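Support request from a user on the community tier.

User writes: "When I paste my C-alpha coordinates into the form, the page sometimes reloads and wipes my input. The last time it worked, I copied everything first. Here is what I submitted, just in case something in the input itself triggers the reload:"
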Protein backbone atom coordinates (compact mmCIF):
# COMPACT_ATOMS: atom_id res chain seq x y z
CA UNK A 1 0.00 0.00 0.00
CA UNK A 2 1.42 3.40 -1.00
CA UNK A 3 2.22 6.24 1.35
CA UNK A 4 -0.76 8.45 2.24
CA UNK A 5 -0.55 11.84 0.56
CA UNK A 6 -2.85 14.54 1.95
CA UNK A 7 -5.01 16.25 -0.68
CA UNK A 8 -3.29 19.61 -0.07
CA UNK A 9 -0.05 18.13 -1.38
CA UNK A 10 -1.56 16.54 -4.48
CA UNK A 11 -1.74 18.19 -7.86
CA UNK A 12 -5.15 19.41 -8.97
CA UNK A 13 -5.17 16.74 -11.66
CA UNK A 14 -4.54 13.98 -9.12
CA UNK A 15 -7.26 15.26 -6.81
CA UNK A 16 -9.80 15.38 -9.64
CA UNK A 17 -8.80 11.89 -10.81
CA UNK A 18 -9.19 10.41 -7.31
CA UNK A 19 -12.59 12.03 -6.84
CA UNK A 20 -13.81 10.67 -10.16
CA UNK A 21 -12.53 7.21 -9.23
CA UNK A 22 -14.48 7.39 -5.96
CA UNK A 23 -17.61 8.37 -7.90
CA UNK A 24 -17.12 5.49 -10.34
CA UNK A 25 -16.74 3.06 -7.44
CA UNK A 26 -19.95 4.31 -5.81
CA UNK A 27 -21.80 3.99 -9.10
CA UNK A 28 -20.56 0.43 -9.54
CA UNK A 29 -21.88 -0.37 -6.06
CA UNK A 30 -25.28 1.08 -6.94
CA UNK A 31 -24.76 4.14 -4.72
CA UNK A 32 -24.69 6.89 -7.36
CA UNK A 33 -25.07 10.15 -5.36
CA UNK A 34 -26.53 11.95 -8.37
CA UNK A 35 -29.56 9.65 -8.25
CA UNK A 36 -30.71 11.09 -4.91
CA UNK A 37 -33.76 13.29 -5.46
CA UNK A 38 -34.58 14.75 -2.05
CA UNK A 39 -33.58 14.73 1.60
CA UNK A 40 -35.87 15.68 4.48
CA UNK A 41 -34.20 18.31 6.66
CA UNK A 42 -35.51 18.95 10.17
CA UNK A 43 -32.92 21.38 11.53
CA UNK A 44 -30.21 23.81 10.50
CA UNK A 45 -26.85 24.57 12.07
CA UNK A 46 -28.23 27.82 13.49
CA UNK A 47 -31.40 26.16 14.87
CA UNK A 48 -29.28 23.69 16.78
CA UNK A 49 -26.86 26.24 18.21
CA UNK A 50 -29.51 28.78 19.14
CA UNK A 51 -31.77 26.21 20.79
CA UNK A 52 -29.22 23.78 22.18
CA UNK A 53 -30.85 23.36 25.59
CA UNK A 54 -34.08 22.18 23.94
CA UNK A 55 -32.39 20.06 21.28
CA UNK A 56 -29.69 18.34 23.30
CA UNK A 57 -30.03 14.58 22.86
CA UNK A 58 -32.69 14.88 20.18
CA UNK A 59 -32.38 13.33 16.74
CA UNK A 60 -32.07 15.79 13.85
CA UNK A 61 -31.64 15.59 10.10
CA UNK A 62 -29.61 18.25 8.38
CA UNK A 63 -27.87 18.63 5.04
CA UNK A 64 -25.06 20.69 3.64
CA UNK A 65 -21.51 20.76 2.33
CA UNK A 66 -18.48 19.26 4.09
CA UNK A 67 -16.00 22.08 4.64
CA UNK A 68 -13.34 20.30 6.68
CA UNK A 69 -12.42 16.80 7.79
CA UNK A 70 -10.16 15.66 10.62
CA UNK A 71 -9.17 12.18 11.74
CA UNK A 72 -8.89 9.04 9.63
CA UNK A 73 -9.11 6.27 12.26
CA UNK A 74 -12.11 5.29 14.34
CA UNK A 75 -13.32 8.86 14.90
CA UNK A 76 -13.87 11.54 12.28
CA UNK A 77 -14.75 15.19 12.82
CA UNK A 78 -16.18 17.28 9.98
CA UNK A 79 -17.61 20.74 9.62
CA UNK A 80 -20.92 20.86 7.77
CA UNK A 81 -21.97 24.14 6.15
CA UNK A 82 -25.62 24.83 5.38
CA UNK A 83 -27.52 28.00 4.56
CA UNK A 84 -27.43 29.10 8.20
CA UNK A 85 -23.76 28.54 9.00
CA UNK A 86 -21.56 25.66 10.11
CA UNK A 87 -21.76 22.91 12.70
CA UNK A 88 -19.43 20.10 13.70
CA UNK A 89 -20.23 16.49 12.81
CA UNK A 90 -18.89 13.59 14.87
CA UNK A 91 -18.66 10.14 13.32
CA UNK A 92 -17.47 7.10 15.32
CA UNK A 93 -17.02 3.61 13.88
CA UNK A 94 -19.02 1.79 16.58
CA UNK A 95 -21.95 4.23 16.47
CA UNK A 96 -22.67 3.73 12.77
CA UNK A 97 -23.17 0.84 10.42
CA UNK A 98 -19.65 -0.40 9.60
CA UNK A 99 -20.06 -0.10 5.83
CA UNK A 100 -21.59 3.37 6.20
CA UNK A 101 -18.69 4.50 8.39
CA UNK A 102 -16.19 3.29 5.78
CA UNK A 103 -18.06 5.19 3.08
CA UNK A 104 -18.20 8.29 5.26
CA UNK A 105 -14.41 8.15 5.67
CA UNK A 106 -14.06 8.37 1.89
CA UNK A 107 -16.07 11.58 1.61
CA UNK A 108 -14.15 14.57 0.29
CA UNK A 109 -14.24 18.19 1.37
CA UNK A 110 -16.89 19.82 -0.78
CA UNK A 111 -19.20 16.79 -0.90
CA UNK A 112 -22.84 17.49 -0.08
CA UNK A 113 -24.30 15.11 2.50
CA UNK A 114 -27.42 14.54 4.52
CA UNK A 115 -26.90 13.29 8.07
CA UNK A 116 -29.12 11.98 10.85
CA UNK A 117 -27.88 11.99 14.40
CA UNK A 118 -28.31 13.34 17.90
CA UNK A 119 -27.26 16.70 19.25
CA UNK A 120 -24.59 16.82 21.93
CA UNK A 121 -21.68 18.85 23.20
CA UNK A 122 -18.11 17.50 22.96
CA UNK A 123 -15.68 17.44 25.89
CA UNK A 124 -14.23 20.67 24.52
CA UNK A 125 -17.68 22.23 24.68
CA UNK A 126 -18.44 22.40 20.96
CA UNK A 127 -22.05 21.82 19.95
CA UNK A 128 -22.06 18.92 17.50
CA UNK A 129 -24.17 16.24 15.83
CA UNK A 130 -23.27 12.58 16.48
CA UNK A 131 -23.92 10.83 13.16
CA UNK A 132 -25.86 7.56 13.02
CA UNK A 133 -26.79 7.61 9.34
CA UNK A 134 -25.63 9.61 6.36
CA UNK A 135 -26.44 9.95 2.66
CA UNK A 136 -24.08 11.28 0.02
CA UNK A 137 -26.30 13.68 -1.93
CA UNK A 138 -23.81 15.10 -4.41
CA UNK A 139 -20.17 14.32 -5.14
CA UNK A 140 -17.86 17.31 -5.50
CA UNK A 141 -15.57 16.50 -8.42
CA UNK A 142 -13.48 19.65 -8.04
CA UNK A 143 -11.68 20.52 -4.79
CA UNK A 144 -12.49 23.75 -2.99
CA UNK A 145 -9.71 26.35 -2.67
CA UNK A 146 -7.12 25.46 -0.05
CA UNK A 147 -8.37 26.32 3.43
CA UNK A 148 -5.81 28.88 4.58
CA UNK A 149 -5.53 30.81 1.32
CA UNK A 150 -9.11 30.48 0.13
CA UNK A 151 -10.47 32.14 -2.96
CA UNK A 152 -8.90 35.59 -3.01
CA UNK A 153 -8.25 36.36 -6.68
CA UNK A 154 -10.84 38.96 -7.63
CA UNK A 155 -11.27 37.83 -11.23
CA UNK A 156 -11.88 34.23 -10.12
CA UNK A 157 -14.20 35.32 -7.31
CA UNK A 158 -16.43 37.25 -9.70
CA UNK A 159 -16.35 34.62 -12.45
CA UNK A 160 -17.00 31.75 -10.05
CA UNK A 161 -19.35 33.39 -7.57
CA UNK A 162 -20.66 29.95 -6.62
CA UNK A 163 -17.23 29.06 -5.18
CA UNK A 164 -16.88 32.52 -3.65
CA UNK A 165 -20.15 32.02 -1.75
CA UNK A 166 -19.04 28.60 -0.52
CA UNK A 167 -15.66 29.58 0.90
CA UNK A 168 -16.09 33.26 1.84
CA UNK A 169 -18.94 33.61 4.41
CA UNK A 170 -18.78 37.42 4.39
CA UNK A 171 -19.85 37.40 0.74
CA UNK A 172 -23.13 35.75 1.67
CA UNK A 173 -23.74 38.52 4.22
CA UNK A 174 -23.31 41.18 1.52
CA UNK A 175 -26.02 39.63 -0.61
CA UNK A 176 -28.28 39.02 2.36
CA UNK A 177 -28.08 42.77 3.05
CA UNK A 178 -28.80 43.47 -0.62
CA UNK A 179 -31.91 41.30 -0.45
CA UNK A 180 -33.02 42.98 2.77
CA UNK A 181 -32.51 46.44 1.29
CA UNK A 182 -34.65 45.66 -1.75
CA UNK A 183 -37.31 44.24 0.58
CA UNK A 184 -37.06 47.42 2.67
CA UNK A 185 -37.59 49.60 -0.42
CA UNK A 186 -40.69 47.62 -1.38
CA UNK A 187 -42.11 47.66 2.14
CA UNK A 188 -41.43 51.39 2.51
CA UNK A 189 -43.04 52.37 -0.80
CA UNK A 190 -45.95 49.95 -0.45
CA UNK A 191 -46.60 51.49 2.96
CA UNK A 192 -46.88 54.92 1.35
CA UNK A 193 -49.46 53.77 -1.16
CA UNK A 194 -47.19 53.21 -4.15
CA UNK A 195 -48.06 50.51 -6.69
CA UNK A 196 -45.28 48.31 -8.07
CA UNK A 197 -45.41 47.89 -11.85
CA UNK A 198 -43.34 46.44 -14.69
CA UNK A 199 -42.40 48.25 -17.90
CA UNK A 200 -40.65 47.08 -21.10
CA UNK A 201 -36.97 46.23 -21.16
CA UNK A 202 -36.91 46.35 -24.98
CA UNK A 203 -37.88 49.65 -26.56
CA UNK A 204 -38.00 51.11 -30.05
CA UNK A 205 -36.62 54.41 -28.68
CA UNK A 206 -33.83 54.98 -26.19
CA UNK A 207 -34.90 57.55 -23.64
CA UNK A 208 -35.37 58.56 -20.04
CA UNK A 209 -31.69 59.26 -19.40
CA UNK A 210 -28.47 60.42 -21.03
CA UNK A 211 -26.58 57.23 -21.81
CA UNK A 212 -25.42 55.02 -24.66
CA UNK A 213 -27.85 52.10 -25.13
CA UNK A 214 -27.34 48.48 -26.08
CA UNK A 215 -28.86 47.73 -29.48
CA UNK A 216 -30.40 44.42 -30.48
CA UNK A 217 -32.55 43.24 -33.39
CA UNK A 218 -36.07 41.84 -33.33
CA UNK A 219 -36.23 39.25 -36.10
CA UNK A 220 -39.99 38.99 -36.50
CA UNK A 221 -40.56 42.75 -36.66
CA UNK A 222 -37.22 43.26 -38.46
CA UNK A 223 -36.39 46.33 -36.40
CA UNK A 224 -33.57 47.37 -34.13
CA UNK A 225 -34.54 47.73 -30.49
CA UNK A 226 -32.85 49.29 -27.48
CA UNK A 227 -32.44 47.78 -24.04
CA UNK A 228 -33.78 50.32 -21.59
CA UNK A 229 -31.44 52.88 -20.08
CA UNK A 230 -34.16 54.01 -17.64
CA UNK A 231 -37.75 53.22 -16.71
CA UNK A 232 -38.78 56.87 -16.48
CA UNK A 233 -40.85 57.55 -19.57
CA UNK A 234 -43.10 54.51 -19.25
CA UNK A 235 -43.69 55.15 -15.56
CA UNK A 236 -44.73 58.74 -16.22
CA UNK A 237 -47.12 57.49 -18.91
CA UNK A 238 -48.79 55.52 -16.11
CA UNK A 239 -49.14 58.68 -14.00
CA UNK A 240 -50.85 60.27 -17.01
CA UNK A 241 -53.16 57.26 -16.99
CA UNK A 242 -54.17 57.91 -13.38
CA UNK A 243 -51.81 55.62 -11.44
CA UNK A 244 -50.77 58.41 -9.11
CA UNK A 245 -48.03 56.59 -7.19
CA UNK A 246 -45.99 54.00 -9.07
CA UNK A 247 -42.56 52.42 -8.79
CA UNK A 248 -40.47 49.80 -10.50
CA UNK A 249 -37.42 47.91 -9.27
CA UNK A 250 -35.58 46.58 -12.27
CA UNK A 251 -32.48 46.05 -14.33
CA UNK A 252 -31.09 48.93 -16.42
CA UNK A 253 -28.61 48.52 -19.29
CA UNK A 254 -26.07 51.12 -20.41
CA UNK A 255 -23.37 50.45 -22.97
CA UNK A 256 -20.73 52.50 -21.22
CA UNK A 257 -17.44 52.19 -19.37
CA UNK A 258 -16.76 49.89 -16.43
CA UNK A 259 -15.13 51.03 -13.20
CA UNK A 260 -15.65 50.53 -9.44
CA UNK A 261 -18.94 52.49 -9.63
CA UNK A 262 -20.30 51.26 -12.97
CA UNK A 263 -21.44 47.94 -14.42
CA UNK A 264 -23.18 47.73 -17.83
CA UNK A 265 -26.28 46.28 -16.17
CA UNK A 266 -27.39 47.49 -12.79
CA UNK A 267 -30.50 47.80 -10.64
CA UNK A 268 -32.55 50.89 -9.88
CA UNK A 269 -35.82 51.78 -8.27
CA UNK A 270 -37.71 54.60 -9.97
CA UNK A 271 -40.82 56.08 -8.39
CA UNK A 272 -43.28 58.78 -9.37
CA UNK A 273 -45.85 60.59 -7.27
CA UNK A 274 -48.55 62.88 -8.64
CA UNK A 275 -49.05 66.26 -6.96
CA UNK A 276 -45.56 66.13 -5.40
CA UNK A 277 -42.30 67.93 -6.25
CA UNK A 278 -38.57 67.47 -5.84
CA UNK A 279 -38.68 68.60 -2.22
CA UNK A 280 -41.05 65.74 -1.41
CA UNK A 281 -38.64 63.38 -3.17
CA UNK A 282 -35.74 64.65 -1.04
CA UNK A 283 -37.71 63.99 2.13
CA UNK A 284 -38.65 60.53 0.89
CA UNK A 285 -35.10 59.57 -0.15
CA UNK A 286 -33.59 60.72 3.14
CA UNK A 287 -36.13 58.76 5.16
CA UNK A 288 -35.90 55.64 2.98
CA UNK A 289 -32.10 55.37 3.11
CA UNK A 290 -31.62 56.39 6.74
CA UNK A 291 -34.28 53.95 7.95
CA UNK A 292 -32.66 51.21 5.85
CA UNK A 293 -29.35 51.79 7.62
CA UNK A 294 -30.99 51.77 11.03
CA UNK A 295 -33.11 48.68 10.43
CA UNK A 296 -30.66 46.56 8.41
CA UNK A 297 -27.24 47.53 9.80
CA UNK A 298 -28.45 48.85 13.16
CA UNK A 299 -26.83 52.28 13.03
CA UNK A 300 -26.67 55.57 11.14
CA UNK A 301 -22.86 55.49 11.43
CA UNK A 302 -21.27 53.64 8.50
CA UNK A 303 -17.77 53.14 7.12
CA UNK A 304 -17.40 53.47 3.35
CA UNK A 305 -14.34 54.03 1.19
CA UNK A 306 -12.28 54.73 4.32
CA UNK A 307 -14.67 57.49 5.37
CA UNK A 308 -16.92 57.70 8.42
CA UNK A 309 -20.40 58.38 7.05
CA UNK A 310 -23.22 59.75 9.22
CA UNK A 311 -26.73 59.03 7.89
CA UNK A 312 -28.52 60.73 10.78
CA UNK A 313 -31.47 62.54 9.11
CA UNK A 314 -31.13 66.24 8.40
CA UNK A 315 -28.79 66.13 5.39
CA UNK A 316 -27.53 69.43 3.90
CA UNK A 317 -29.23 70.79 0.78
CA UNK A 318 -27.19 73.05 -1.53
CA UNK A 319 -27.97 74.40 -4.96
CA UNK A 320 -25.36 73.48 -7.55
CA UNK A 321 -24.32 77.13 -7.80
CA UNK A 322 -23.99 77.34 -3.99
CA UNK A 323 -21.82 74.21 -3.94
CA UNK A 324 -19.55 75.58 -6.68
CA UNK A 325 -19.25 78.88 -4.82
CA UNK A 326 -18.57 77.15 -1.50
CA UNK A 327 -15.89 74.80 -2.81
CA UNK A 328 -14.37 76.74 -5.72
CA UNK A 329 -14.97 80.36 -4.75
CA UNK A 330 -16.70 81.36 -7.99
CA UNK A 331 -20.31 82.52 -8.20
CA UNK A 332 -22.22 81.69 -11.38
CA UNK A 333 -25.27 83.55 -10.11
CA UNK A 334 -23.40 86.86 -10.57
CA UNK A 335 -22.94 86.32 -14.33
CA UNK A 336 -25.51 85.93 -17.06
CA UNK A 337 -23.77 85.46 -20.40
CA UNK A 338 -22.15 82.36 -21.81
CA UNK A 339 -18.88 84.26 -22.28
CA UNK A 340 -18.76 85.33 -18.62
CA UNK A 341 -19.53 81.76 -17.55
CA UNK A 342 -16.70 80.46 -19.73
CA UNK A 343 -14.23 82.87 -18.12
CA UNK A 344 -15.39 81.80 -14.64
CA UNK A 345 -14.94 78.14 -15.49
CA UNK A 346 -11.51 78.75 -17.04
CA UNK A 347 -10.41 80.49 -13.82
CA UNK A 348 -10.66 77.14 -12.01
CA UNK A 349 -9.29 75.05 -14.86
CA UNK A 350 -12.56 73.82 -16.39
CA UNK A 351 -13.02 73.70 -20.16
CA UNK A 352 -15.69 72.22 -22.45
CA UNK A 353 -15.03 70.06 -25.49
CA UNK A 354 -16.30 70.95 -28.94
CA UNK A 355 -19.10 68.37 -28.69
CA UNK A 356 -20.82 70.32 -25.89
CA UNK A 357 -22.71 73.60 -26.18
CA UNK A 358 -20.69 76.38 -24.55
CA UNK A 359 -23.54 77.68 -22.42
CA UNK A 360 -23.85 79.15 -18.94
CA UNK A 361 -25.58 75.99 -17.75
CA UNK A 362 -23.01 73.59 -19.16
CA UNK A 363 -20.13 75.57 -17.64
CA UNK A 364 -21.83 75.54 -14.23
CA UNK A 365 -22.46 71.80 -14.45
CA UNK A 366 -18.92 70.96 -15.56
CA UNK A 367 -17.41 72.99 -12.73
CA UNK A 368 -19.46 70.95 -10.31
CA UNK A 369 -18.88 67.63 -12.07
CA UNK A 370 -15.14 68.03 -12.53
CA UNK A 371 -14.17 69.84 -9.34
CA UNK A 372 -16.82 69.65 -6.61
CA UNK A 373 -18.43 66.20 -6.74
CA UNK A 374 -15.21 64.51 -5.60
CA UNK A 375 -15.20 66.67 -2.45
CA UNK A 376 -18.65 65.63 -1.18
CA UNK A 377 -18.29 62.97 1.52
CA UNK A 378 -21.24 63.30 3.91
CA UNK A 379 -24.79 62.95 2.53
CA UNK A 380 -25.52 66.11 0.55
CA UNK A 381 -28.40 67.02 -1.75
CA UNK A 382 -27.29 69.11 -4.73
CA UNK A 383 -30.29 70.93 -6.20
CA UNK A 384 -31.26 73.26 -9.05
CA UNK A 385 -29.36 71.74 -11.99
CA UNK A 386 -29.10 73.65 -15.28
CA UNK A 387 -31.73 73.01 -17.95
CA UNK A 388 -28.92 72.11 -20.37
CA UNK A 389 -28.22 68.84 -18.54
CA UNK A 390 -31.77 68.13 -17.36
CA UNK A 391 -33.99 67.45 -20.39
CA UNK A 392 -36.83 65.91 -18.36
CA UNK A 393 -36.93 68.24 -15.35
CA UNK A 394 -39.29 71.18 -14.76
CA UNK A 395 -37.79 74.66 -15.00
CA UNK A 396 -37.49 76.66 -11.82
CA UNK A 397 -40.07 79.47 -11.72
CA UNK A 398 -37.37 81.60 -10.04
CA UNK A 399 -34.71 81.13 -12.74
CA UNK A 400 -35.59 79.54 -16.10
CA UNK A 401 -31.94 78.53 -16.62
CA UNK A 402 -32.31 76.02 -13.78
CA UNK A 403 -34.54 73.06 -13.01
CA UNK A 404 -36.14 71.69 -9.87
CA UNK A 405 -33.78 68.73 -9.78
CA UNK A 406 -31.50 67.16 -7.21
CA UNK A 407 -28.89 64.47 -6.91
CA UNK A 408 -27.81 62.91 -3.62
CA UNK A 409 -24.07 62.47 -3.14
CA UNK A 410 -22.42 60.35 -0.47
CA UNK A 411 -18.70 59.70 -0.36
CA UNK A 412 -18.12 61.20 -3.83
CA UNK A 413 -20.78 58.95 -5.36
CA UNK A 414 -24.15 59.85 -6.84
CA UNK A 415 -26.80 57.78 -5.06
CA UNK A 416 -29.94 59.00 -6.78
CA UNK A 417 -31.43 61.56 -9.14
CA UNK A 418 -34.81 63.28 -8.93
CA UNK A 419 -36.85 66.21 -10.12
CA UNK A 420 -40.14 67.94 -10.37
CA UNK A 421 -41.15 66.36 -13.65
CA UNK A 422 -41.50 68.45 -16.77
CA UNK A 423 -45.16 68.24 -17.76
CA UNK A 424 -45.26 70.93 -20.46
CA UNK A 425 -45.47 69.00 -23.77
CA UNK A 426 -44.29 71.99 -25.84
CA UNK A 427 -41.20 72.56 -23.70
CA UNK A 428 -40.56 68.80 -23.58
CA UNK A 429 -40.68 68.48 -27.36
CA UNK A 430 -38.21 71.33 -27.74
CA UNK A 431 -35.82 69.70 -25.30
CA UNK A 432 -36.12 66.35 -27.07
CA UNK A 433 -35.31 68.16 -30.33
CA UNK A 434 -32.19 69.58 -28.66
CA UNK A 435 -31.17 66.04 -27.73
CA UNK A 436 -31.75 64.91 -31.33
CA UNK A 437 -29.48 67.69 -32.59
CA UNK A 438 -26.76 66.69 -30.14
CA UNK A 439 -27.11 63.09 -31.28
CA UNK A 440 -26.76 64.17 -34.91
CA UNK A 441 -23.53 65.95 -33.96
CA UNK A 442 -22.09 62.67 -32.67
CA UNK A 443 -23.19 62.53 -29.03
CA UNK A 444 -24.33 58.88 -28.83
CA UNK A 445 -25.49 59.38 -25.23
CA UNK A 446 -28.06 61.99 -26.20
CA UNK A 447 -31.73 61.03 -26.18
CA UNK A 448 -34.17 60.52 -29.06
CA UNK A 449 -37.48 62.07 -29.99
CA UNK A 450 -40.28 60.13 -28.27
CA UNK A 451 -43.43 61.33 -30.00
CA UNK A 452 -45.70 58.96 -28.11
CA UNK A 453 -44.46 60.38 -24.80
CA UNK A 454 -45.21 63.89 -26.09
CA UNK A 455 -48.71 62.65 -26.96
CA UNK A 456 -49.09 61.34 -23.39
CA UNK A 457 -48.08 64.74 -21.99
CA UNK A 458 -50.62 66.42 -24.27
CA UNK A 459 -53.36 64.44 -22.49
CA UNK A 460 -52.04 65.95 -19.26
CA UNK A 461 -49.44 64.90 -16.67
CA UNK A 462 -50.24 66.32 -13.23
CA UNK A 463 -47.48 68.06 -11.28
CA UNK A 464 -45.30 65.07 -10.38
CA UNK A 465 -42.22 64.31 -8.34
CA UNK A 466 -39.93 61.55 -9.58
CA UNK A 467 -36.93 59.80 -8.06
CA UNK A 468 -34.44 57.22 -9.29
CA UNK A 469 -32.18 55.42 -6.82
CA UNK A 470 -29.17 53.24 -7.58
CA UNK A 471 -29.77 50.02 -5.65
CA UNK A 472 -26.21 48.79 -6.14
CA UNK A 473 -24.58 51.91 -4.73
CA UNK A 474 -26.89 51.92 -1.73
CA UNK A 475 -25.86 48.33 -1.04
CA UNK A 476 -22.19 49.32 -1.43
CA UNK A 477 -22.77 51.95 1.24
CA UNK A 478 -24.60 49.60 3.63
CA UNK A 479 -21.98 46.85 3.26
CA UNK A 480 -18.88 49.04 3.05
CA UNK A 481 -17.87 47.70 -0.36
CA UNK A 482 -15.65 49.84 -2.58
CA UNK A 483 -16.56 48.27 -5.92
CA UNK A 484 -19.91 47.55 -7.53
CA UNK A 485 -18.71 44.07 -8.49
CA UNK A 486 -18.84 43.07 -4.83
CA UNK A 487 -22.59 43.72 -4.65
CA UNK A 488 -23.66 42.20 -7.99
CA UNK A 489 -23.79 38.42 -7.90
CA UNK A 490 -22.65 38.01 -11.49
CA UNK A 491 -20.92 41.20 -12.70
CA UNK A 492 -20.19 41.61 -16.38
CA UNK A 493 -16.83 40.01 -17.27
CA UNK A 494 -14.86 39.63 -20.46
CA UNK A 495 -14.90 35.93 -21.46
CA UNK A 496 -11.74 33.96 -20.89
CA UNK A 497 -10.02 32.55 -23.93
CA UNK A 498 -10.23 28.75 -24.15
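"...and here is what came back when it finally went through:"
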Amino acid sequence: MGKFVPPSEMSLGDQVRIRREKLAQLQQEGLDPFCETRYEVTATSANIKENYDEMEGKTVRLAGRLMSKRGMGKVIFCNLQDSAGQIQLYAKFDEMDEAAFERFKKNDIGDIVGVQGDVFRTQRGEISVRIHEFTLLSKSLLPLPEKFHGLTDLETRYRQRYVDLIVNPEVRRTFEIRSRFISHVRKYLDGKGYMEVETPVLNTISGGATARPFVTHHNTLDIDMYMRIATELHLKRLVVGGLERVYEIGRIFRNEGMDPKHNPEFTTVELYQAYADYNDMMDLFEELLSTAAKEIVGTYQLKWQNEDIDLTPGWPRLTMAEAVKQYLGIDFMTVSTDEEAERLAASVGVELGAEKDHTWGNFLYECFDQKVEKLLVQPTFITMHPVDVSPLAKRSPKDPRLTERFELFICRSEMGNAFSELNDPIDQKARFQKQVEMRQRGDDEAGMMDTDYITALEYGLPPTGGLGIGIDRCVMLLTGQDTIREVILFPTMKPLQD
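Agent notes: The reload is a front-end session timeout and is unrelated to the input. The two ends are 39 Å apart (CA to CA). The first helix runs from residue 12 to 28. Escalated to web team.
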